[in-house]
């Protein structure tokens, strides 16, 4: 059933995300075309339109970064906390499967949005001749990696794995914080949206304070221990601590979300 839930969630979200990607590609191409207007002598109206298109591209990239989170939060609210939740909760699945399907699909769209942002920025910044640098850069990177000895290659691969897990747990933690805020806010009979907004602010502030406290303990109290490590070892150690902290955040807000969904659910 988890696979079916993921397929259904992905199909439903695809109807929204693919048009967003297509619209941003069209806006990027329009922005590239407008650069020729700005570089040449053109009427002031065309220059104004070119500037507006460029500003729209910048805001569009910013919106694309938040689109997976907003879409995931809206679907979580509509499918589990509002009227549609009555139908969703009658499915032959448990709450863990419902939450897992939404988190997995959300993580996939986060990755897709990241790749789209990188590609769109490259389209906006590179000329046609500049694209030949990309495969050359990849070849030089692989060549430099092969020249490393076995120990350094292992540390580099470990660093890449930790970076990947850091991103995955990071976006999962953000989604779970928003889910928990919705679950708490919608457990009340009145002012659900306002209480959800307050919960989001409180939860993110708590996580921020906790992160500052952890960083202070690591880099102040344990400065001598950190200074004895090499650059790669220190990087791996920092990522290991960050992964543990992110995992703790995920577990805490998953349990908060699960508790309020199963014990204090108040559907509209």
Textual characterization of the structure:
The chain is globular and about 65 Å long. The protein is built from nine helices and no strands. It is 86% helix and 0% strand. The chain is mainly alpha-helical and 268 residues long. α2 packs across α6. The longest helix has 38 residues.
Features:
268 residues; 9 helices; 86% helix
Give the overall pLDDT as a whole number: 82
Q: Radius of gyration over alpha carbons?
A: 23 Å
* Helix share bin: over 70%
> Ends: how far apart?
26 Å
Shape: globular
Q: So how many helices?
A: 9
The quaternary structure here is single chain
Q: Would you report the number of β strands? A: 0
Largest sheet: none
Structural class: mainly alpha
Secondary-structure element order, N to C: HHHHHHHHH
Low-confidence spans: none
Proportion of strand residues: under 5%
Could you outline the blueprint of secondary structure elements for this entry?
Blueprint: H1 2-39, H2 44-81, H3 84-88, H4 95-125, H5 133-146, H6 150-185, H7 192-221, H8 223-227, H9 231-263
């Amino acid at each position: 059933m988890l696979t079916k839930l993921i397929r259904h969630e992905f199909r439903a979200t695809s109807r929204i995300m693919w048009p967003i990607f297509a619209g941003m590609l069209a806006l990027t191409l329009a922005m590239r075309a407008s650069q020729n207007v700005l570089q040449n002598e053109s009427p002031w109206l065309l220059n104004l339109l070119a500037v507006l298109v460029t500003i729209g591209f910048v805001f569009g990239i910013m919106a694309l970064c938040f689109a997976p989170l907003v879409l995931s939060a809206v679907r979580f609210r509509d499918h589990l906390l509002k009227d549609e939740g009555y139908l969703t909760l009658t499915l032959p699945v448990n709450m863990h499967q419902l939450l897992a399907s939404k988190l997995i699909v959300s993580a996939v769209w986060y990755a897709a949005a990241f790749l789209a942002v990188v590609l769109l920025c490259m389209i906006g910044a590179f000329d046609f001749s500049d694209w030949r640098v990309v495969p050359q850069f990849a070849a030089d990177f692989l060549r430099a990696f092969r020249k490393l000895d076995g120990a350094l290659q292992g540390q580099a691969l470990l660093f890449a794995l930790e970076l990947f897990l850091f991103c995955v747990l990071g976006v999962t933690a953000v989604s779970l914080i928003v889910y928990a805020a919705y679950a708490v806010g919608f457990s009340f009979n009145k002012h659900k949206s306002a209480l959800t907004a307050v919960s989001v602010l409180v939860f993110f502030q708590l996580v921020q304070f906790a992160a500052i406290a952890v960083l202070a303990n690591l880099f102040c109290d344990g400065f001598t221990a950190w200074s004895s490590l090499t650059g790669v070892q220190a990087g791996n150690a920092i990522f290991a601590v960050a992964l543990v902290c992110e995992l703790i955040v995920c577990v805490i807000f998953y349990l908060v979300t699960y508790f309020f969904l199963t014990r204090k659910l108040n559907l509209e």
